[in-house]
Amino acid sequence: MHKFTKALAAIGLAAVMSQSAMAETLKLGFLVKQPEEPWFQTEWKFADKAGKDLGFEVIKIAVPDGEKTLNAIDSLAASGAKGFVICTPDRSSARRLSPKRADTI
């Protein structure tokens, strides 16, 4: 599992345990910057799996910029979500794995 999904799972588990008496399904937002990228789609899949395993609903939202991020957070609050994770690109590993950069080393 990726570190973002682990964080989401921990938040979900804590929230589920603290509110286990409630019949309502716990909702957590999972916001990604570039949903068309395979890496982000994989993160969403891991978040869905964590949600199924731990008993919470994942609300997936694409947030390409800061304004949309703020709007998404407002929407999550309005829908009753108890928290959210913002999944950003890992620029350091992208640089490390870049073929162009590998040629210069």
TrEMBL record:
Localization per record: Periplasm
UniProt KW keywords: Signal
Pfam (any one): Peripla_BP_1
Domain Periplasmic binding protein/LacI sugar binding: start-end pairs: 25-94
Signal is among the record's keywords: yes
Chief location: periplasm
Signal peptide: 1-23
Molecular function, one GO term: carbohydrate binding
GO cellular component annotations of the record: outer membrane-bounded periplasmic space
Family: Belongs to the bacterial solute-binding protein 2 family.
Protein name: L-arabinose-binding periplasmic protein
Organism: Raoultella planticola (Klebsiella planticola)
UniProt gene name: araF_3
